[in-house]
Amino acid sequence: MTEINHLGRMADFDLTDTQRQVRLAVREFAEREILPTVEQNEREGQYPRELIRQLAPLGYLAPLIPENYGGSFSDVVSYGIVCEELARVDWVIASAVSVANSLVGSSILRFGTESQRQQWLPPLAAGEILASACLTEPSGGTDLAGMRTQATAVGDDWVLRGNKVFISHAAEAGVFLVAATVDPALSHQGVTMFLVDPATPGIEISPLPMRTLQRDNVAEVHFDDVHVPSDGLLGKQGRGFPILGAALDTGRFSVAARCVGQAQRAIDLTLPYARDRRAFGQAIGEFQMVQQKVADMICRTEAARCLVYRLGRMKDAGVERCSLEASMSKLMASEAATQNALDAIQIFGGYGFSSEYEVGRLLLEAKTLEVGEGTSELHRKLIAEFSLGLRK
Ligand SMILES: Cc1cc2nc3c(=O)[nH]c(=O)nc-3n(C[C@H](O)[C@H](O)[C@H](O)COP(=O)(O)OP(=O)(O)OC[C@H]3O[C@@H](n4cnc5c(N)ncnc54)[C@H](O)[C@@H]3O)c2cc1C
User: Fold this and answer.
1) How far is residue 118's CA from residue 296's CA, in Å, rounded to a whole number?
2) Whose CA is nearest to atom 9 of ligand 1?
3) Residue 85 sits in which domain range?
4) CA 73–ligand 1 middle distance (angstroms)
5) pLDDT at position 106
6) pLDDT of 133-188, one tens digit each?
7) What share of the chain is helix, strand, coil (3-state, %, to 5)?
8) 213 lines ligand 1 (CB under 6 A)
9) Is residue 99 within 8 Å of 178, Cβ to Cβ?
10) How far away, in angstroms, is 322 Cα from ligand 1 center?
11) Are residues 253 and 383 in the same domain?
């Protein structure tokens, strides 16, 4: 059977040579250094801290942070390619890059003071510290305006009290981006954002037992009368919701790119298996029903990739709000990643459930991205509301 060069055929018709080189370089590093560690890290619940540190000198840790703050910013599409290729081998390392750049780094860049940028961006870009975004609460993550973590002004300073759940990278982070409210009755107009040192007295980080991603150490974070100095306020009191909106807009781009990487991984694992595995005297890839799954996996991945790169190009062109396109990309790419993992498992038969093969692990990891940074239901609602003129 003829070998198809997927790197040469995937939707990259508008990538520059430099962007194509970024893909090859990240892919080569990820396959050589990261891939061999993932299964063992997952079994042992081992967070890949050292590998994340190694991304910094290569320029893969801070692709959205400008050079004058120690980052390697070139363009948004390249950032998406870095996220895609890292996620193709490891959810956790891609997530660390995505949270540090899209949610936390971009928020500091766009809404922080120069002193906040100088304090947090160089150590983030150098890999000296990691970042966590503390948004979701036990009472709900979709309805962010309904958050309950309380921020109380004490003179010029602040005191935070409340609980956050499902916080990725928390135990390893050197900076928390925290969303709180000055008054829950004010709904979104009460939301206020803070940059907090996780070592501040009153912060307790405890493991949140998960069915997947043992190597991410997903945590609960408790804020018990945590004193935050005035320079920890990001933006202005009660003006946190637009900061969240901008952060999630960029976050959904990188999550969508990560989903494309995961969808691609399912394809890359499935093609050789379908060629080699035999039943009834022939390769299973010669059965039409297997071929149908392979064709659908490839089509949905390429369709999602086109949406993601288009969104990246809009951001590179300076389009201010891309929320509709961000929702479309994130929705389609996350559902493609889950469906590809399901199809891959079916094609692998019983071996899809064997710990000898990756495809079984991919399924729950992909499904988490239909929930994080906006559930599929939320994105369908946003897309419909934008299109119906119910939301501007
Ligand atoms: C692996 C993983 C890592 C995560 N990392 C982080 C992190 O680092 N930081 C962080 O802050 N959070 C993180 N999260 C949390 C994630 O962002 C939330 O789980 C998500 O926002 C959904 O919130 P929830 O779980 O409270 O569900 P809920 O908000 O309770 O929603 C439950 C269900 O109701 C549906 N629903 C809710 N509102 C509506 C509506 N208006 N219309 C239709 N359906 C609706 C939802 O779509 C969902 O199906 C992580 C989650 C996972 C699984």
Assistant:
1) 47
2) 167
3) 6-130
4) 30
5) 97
6) 999 999 999 999 999 999 999 999 999 999 999 999 999 999 999 999 999 999 99
7) 60, 15, 25
8) yes
9) no
10) 21
11) yes
